[in-house]
Amino acid sequence: MQAWHHHPPGGTEKLKIVKADIPEIDDDEVLVKVYAAGLIWMELYWQLYEKEDGTYKTPIPGEDYSGVIVKVGSKVPEGLKVGTEVMVFVTKAFSSKHSTDGGMAEYAKAHFSKMIPKPQNLSHVEAASVPLAALTAWQGLFDHAKLKAGQTLLVAGGTGPTAIWAIQMGKMVGARVIATAASEQSFKLLKSLGVNQVINYKEAKLESVLASENVDVVFNAVGDEVTKQALKVVSEDGIIINIVDTTVGDLSKESVRDSFREPFFRKEDGRTVVFFIVDMNVQQLTEIGNLLNEGKLKAVIGAVYDFTDVVNAFKQGETGHAHGKIVVKGPGL
Ligand SMILES: NC(=O)c1ccc[n+]([C@@H]2O[C@H](COP(=O)([O-])OP(=O)(O)OC[C@H]3O[C@@H](n4cnc5c(N)ncnc54)[C@H](OP(=O)(O)O)[C@@H]3O)[C@@H](O)[C@H]2O)c1
After folding, report:
1. Are 6 and 58 in contact (CB under 8 A)?
2. CA distances from residue 140 to 80, 84, 167 in whole angstroms, order as listed
3. Full DSSP string of 258-303
4. How would you write 168-200 as a 3-class SS string?
5. Separation of 168 CA from ligand 1 center, angstroms?
6. Which residue is closest in CA terms to ligand 1's atom 18?
7. Per-residue pLDDT tens for 57-110?
8. At what angle do helices 131-138 and 282-293 cross, to 10 degrees?
9. Taking each helix axis from N to C terminus, what angle separates 131-138 and 161-172, rounded to the nearest 10 degrees?
10. On the CB side of 75, how many CA atoms lie within 13 Å of its CA?
11. Which of 85, 162, 266, 269 is the most buried if burial means most Cβ atoms within 10 Å?
């Protein structure tokens, strides 16, 4: 089969398209013919693949993908059969025998617990854009922040793939949503998502615009500088949800990363700050899939690349100005 391999350490110059063997599956695994895979541009810089002897594995990029099942192991539950279209999230962050390779290949295998049937109303490209980003927003807003109707939600980095879900989910539950962005294209997108107030992060600091605002929840998809500013605008009983946070330790080390299987809550200036790493959750992804089928949420695609053009897809991600998820089509689509 055709597959992209990354040869870390290094970035896009270390991506190679190769002929590889179709993966063999275990009893509890499924083989999927991949039609589309989501792109996470930072994954080329993760240290997940360094072995104890200092050499590196050569992973297939992509954590989430969509396709059709072509083979099932004997212990796979009945709902997943040959011919079932699925969307998959393999969660590479937490090591297991099942999670080293992703979806940028003709075929990919995954444990049955890492997938759900594809929502019917979604194309494969749309489905591939959903799991990682939508689950991150869902777990941040609902598991950790307990966001409710009537609250004010501030989403920093508003037009990135993850933040777009946070905005939609905030609007869906009846929160007032404020978002930051810095380009005309971003402002237009935020308006189309129904954002109540937009802040141009290049022109104003959060505290200068939101001094009198009662912000209950901050969803921070940008990083430490936003945490500092957010501490000045979040209410005393509010919460800052960080999905990027360099203060929590070196996440390239497995022992550090593994400690984030549970979210890490701390107090800063009397405010609650939480950092967490997303994990697959079948029930939550099914609920998100139902909301997508009903049209209550929508997949926002920033760009779609052909399978042979993976290097340029990563290069676009690396600009840090994606407006929605970047998706790579499988060789068979
Ligand atoms: N903890 C977890 O489990 C988890 C899960 C998913 C993602 N992440 C992390 O979350 C971060 C976001 O990832 P992503 O893929 O959703 O988005 P991304 O592609 O990294 O971000 C792109 C967006 O960020 C905006 N942006 C850039 N700098 C900004 C700033 N200083 N202030 C406000 N907005 C800014 C850009 O808007 P403009 O074009 O308008 O500038 C653009 O729309 C990444 O660092 C990723 O590693 C963590």
Report:
1. yes
2. 28, 30, 12
3. HGGGS-EEEEETTEEEEE------HHHHHHHHHHHHTTSS---EEE
4. HHHHHCCCEEEEEECCHHHHHHHHHCCCCEEEE
5. 16
6. 160
7. 899 999 999 999 999 999 999 999 999 999 999 988 876 665 579 999 999 999
8. 100
9. 50
10. 9
11. 162
Length of the chain measured in residues:
333
Q: Which residues pair with 318 in a beta bridge?
A: none
Superfamily of domain 134-275: NAD(P)-binding Rossmann-like Domain (3.40.50.720)
**Averaged pLDDT of the chain:** 95
H/E stretch holding 254 reads helix 254-258
Q: Is 33 helix (H, G, I), strand (E, B) or coil?
A: strand
Atom from ligand 1 closest to the CA of residue 243? 1
How much is the average pLDDT of 146-168?
97
Tens of pLDDT, residues 169-190? 999 999 999 999 999 999 999 9
Residue with tokens 């991506």: 15
The pTM of the full predicted model, rounded to 2 decimals, is 0.97
Q: Which residues line ligand 1 (CB under 6 A)?
A: 42, 132-133, 136, 156-157, 159-163, 180-183, 186, 201, 221-222, 243-244, 277-278, 317, 320-323
What's the one-letter identity of residue 270?
A: G
Cβ neighbours of residue 323 under 8 Å, at least 6 residues apart?
159, 185, 186, 189, 300, 302
- CATH 3.90.180.10 range(s) for the chain read 2-130+299-329
Structure tokens at 102: 């992703």
Q: Cα(first)–Cα(last) distance of the chain, in Å?
A: 14
Closest ligand 1 atom, residue 163 Cα: 16
CA distances 234 to 196, 219, 288, Å, are 17, 11, 28
